[in-house]
Amino acid sequence: xxxxxxxxxxxxxxxxxxxxxxxxxxxxxxxxxxxxxxxxxxxxxxxxxxxxxxxxxxxxxxxxxxxxxxxxxxxxxxxxxxxxxxxxxxxxxxxxxxxxxxxxxxxxxxxxxxxxxxxxxxxxxxxxxxxxxxxxxxxxxxxxxxxxxxxxxxxxxxxxxxxxxxxxxxxxxxxxxxxxxxxxxxx
Length: 187
Description:
Largest sheet: none
Distance between the termini: 91 Å
Shape: extended
Order of helices and strands: HHHHH
Strand content: under 5%
Radius of gyration: 32 Å
Number of strands: 0
Mean pLDDT: 75
């Protein structure tokens, strides 16, 4: 087995161990799994880089062919992956520390809603999915018929500073008693 084959096997083992560790309930194991997965991604980028070559910079004294130059993109992606892994690891460490402060444990426990979802039967799931089907006539807001709607339309009788002669982008409905529409400027 050559060097690339060994790197591929090591990368696959690191990725599998990382995913397995991230599926645990302990935040510390999630952190370890994330670090393993980050290292597996770095190895993948190292494998993708191909055979090592000379620097990608141009040297006028020793011009090289395009086949001899190494690709700088995987190197830049590896540096970016290292920075992202570091940042997310720091965030996970802060979560673990706060969880330890609050509960003296870093394990994510089930709450009442998780237990209720787990105990649902298939018949209840079908009823929930049937209720989720909305027709076109159903309202898409939670504020139907509620006096405290989030949007209030102000008119000139609400606030004396509002000008009702402002242009609108929809046709203005006219009543039978009006001969002309004053909003459009026809007097």
